């Protein structure tokens, strides 16, 4: 399962919230989380974030693969923080990180990418007199979001090919195919945009 750009249809209270409200709440909570210094508050935020994710109706088993990855990273980070700064800072740092990951999943699982992009474009329109082009930024983010699953699929394919050739720990057997395939996908995306009349020097339809 990909971590980004995966929308799950549903009718939970989180699904019904406007995309702008969810993105704004995520930004506010992220800023507030950076100010947390109490382990108890960090754990409370983590519990609230987990409840918010569960309230969407998404089954945790569907998140098993990314949860395993995030769990390993959290354990490693907690060990390093505990060794260097003690249990309190380790709890705050890991609690903050896991909370933001869970909340980001909550937003991405309940909000279509197209809704988030429209929200972003509306939010950036007041900055147009300063030279900001909302349509170009929206297109760039959309391509980036859609490229993440493609890149993960490329890495997975290269890993399988590496194992099949008996080169399980070879960095070059993994890195070279990923770089070549990624460059090819980027070229294909560029050709597809040009074929559809996209001109990077052109302003958007409401520009």
From TrEMBL:
Protein name per UniProt: Biotin transport system permease protein
Any GO CC annotation of this UniProt entry: plasma membrane
Keywords: Membrane, Transmembrane, Transmembrane helix
Organism per entry: Janibacter cremeus
Localization in the cell: Membrane
Primary location class: membrane
Membrane topology of this protein: Multi-pass membrane protein
Transmembrane segments: 23-54, 66-85, 97-115
Highest taxon, organism lineage: Bacteria
